[in-house]
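Researcher: Please predict.
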Amino acid sequence: MAPEKPSAVAVRLIQFLSSLLVGATLVLAPWTPLWENHPVLATSQHLREILLAPWLRGAVTGLGLVNLAAAAVDVVQL
C-alpha cells in the first residue's frame, strides 16, 4: 500500500482533534457550574427546567461519547 499524502494525514489529525475536543466538551459541560449558571437560563423558567433536566444532560453526554468514539476510530486510522 502506498504511503498517504501529508495532506491526508493532516486532515485525519484535524478530524481526530476536532472529535476529541467536541466529545470532551459535550461529556463534561452539562455537569459543570458553567451549564447551570449560564445567563440564558435566567431568561425563562421553562427553558431552565428543560436544560437542567437529567435526561437532556445525559443525551448531551451521550453525543459527547459518540464523538469520543469517533476520535478513537480516527486515531487508529492515523
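Model: The mean pLDDT is 91.
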